[in-house]
Here is the input.
Amino acid sequence: MKVMVAQIAPKLGDIEKNFQIHLDILENARKDKTDLVVFPELSLTGYSLQDLIPEVAIQIENNHYFDELKKISKEISFIIGFVEEKEKGIFYNSAAFFNKGKIIHIHRKVFLPNYGIFEEARFFASGNKFEVVSTDLGNFGILICRDFLHFPTSYILFVGGAEIVVVVSNSPVRGISDKEYFESARFWECHGEDVARLLTSFVIYCNRVGFEEGLCFGGGSFICNPFGKLLRKADYVDEEIFTEEINLNEVRNARIVAPYKRDDSPELILKELKKILSAKEKE
Amino acid sequence: MKINCELVKRILVRFIREELQKFGFYRGIIGLSGGLDSTVCCYLAKEALGEKNVFALILPYKDLNKKDVEDAKEIAEKLRISYKIIDISPMIDIYFEKYPTENKILIGNKMARERMSILYDFSARENALVIGTSNKSELLLGYGTIHGDLAWAINPLGDLYKTQIFQLAEHLGVPEKIIKKTPSAGLWEDQTDEGEIGITYSEIDEILYQLIDRRKPPQELISLGYEKKKIDRIVSLIRISQFKRKMPPIAKISIRTVGLDFLYSRDWYK
Here is the structure.
């Protein structure tokens, strides 16, 4: 499968311009016989939206941008980020998976960061599930940015049968040192490598770049194979669109070498969690 | 405190270029004193915008800081950016003839605001946005004049401590004599930052880094062996200068109020 990771710099609140950026990338990807294109979190709108959220929100039925994207997806699959108005006045930070002319899956960000520079829970409603979607390209789970840093989330997808964990992100840089990366970039890579190795799955991480009112989004998009090897990593500062061939046989190979999947016991984990939670309830 | 200078340079260069272009500008204007921060800003701006798109204003008061003015000219010529020297003495002197004072802080603030006024006038004349040069150490300690050197359109250096700017300057190839200069606001004879604050920058920055970036409470720093007097001085400077770092308050009366819950990024539709 040929995967393209589109590390772009969306314009804040300008759906029309961002839509055009998506179309251009998708057209090139289609010509290049790419199977899947991954765009960052909120790729249609930009990040620091605040009161712009109601103005850029999309109700997916009868939306002309989405109608056009569905048409394009007859020939190429892709994941985009947008503000979804699921019910009137209720907004989600969502990612949609377009495949074979349809939206086959929407993930609504569950863990909305609300500290320091982040204030997502002030503006968005939280999603309430993590699902695996089976496609002709493989079994996918989508996580949005902070979702990935709560480590049970990838595990839920693993138990659900995911072979590819796609993480779309808008992570700003924090913490400069003399290292070649920011503290904030390094923890994505460490976590990505670990999750890929321990879940013996591919991890595709797509972040954005560019500035919004001083916030510098830190790129560094990457793909890890099911052995936890970083196959490719994009620049930390500038736009970069890269394509990588990934082979799902690697999931099988990795699970033979390291049978974490075979030896896993979600029932036991669930039992133990329930025990802890019921004890806590009694406190 | 060590920084990856090349990575920082790339980010700041992109910041200058992108933030200016978003607002339809391709040119930047910088008040160049001949000191470290404004020199570093000129280097970064030249890299971001090209030498033809950086304009330096050198704004001396009489013969105060004569050496710095020479250095500023030399920097502008070395970078091949255009510059203009405007003596602010007539504007300052005429004011204080009418309203005399012995208070050098009043005179210094007036000079900083005169420079701001000229920078913004030339910003419109030159179609160039004002690039601020205050660093993180100064911003946290409130070591700057409100509506003076604290006025800018964008500021690439505001999240770097002074000691980090020394590192960046070296990486950018800033001449050694500029790097070796004793940091000074240059508002009166023999004024130095460290003299006025009473603590050296290396101590200030180390304490600020622990307090601000690493969120260590003052008490913990004292127990780690930092001098209580210095911690107290720094904490007090940070507290009394908070007004310089925030937009002034507006009394909320309506449902939606500018500055409080009219929440749009500056980069709205940019």
In short: The first helix of chain A runs from residue 15 to 31. Chain A has nine helices and 14 strands. Chain A touches chain B at residues 11-14, 46, 48-52, 173, 175-182, 210-214, 216, 236-238 (CB under 8 Å). The radius of gyration of chain A is 18 Å.
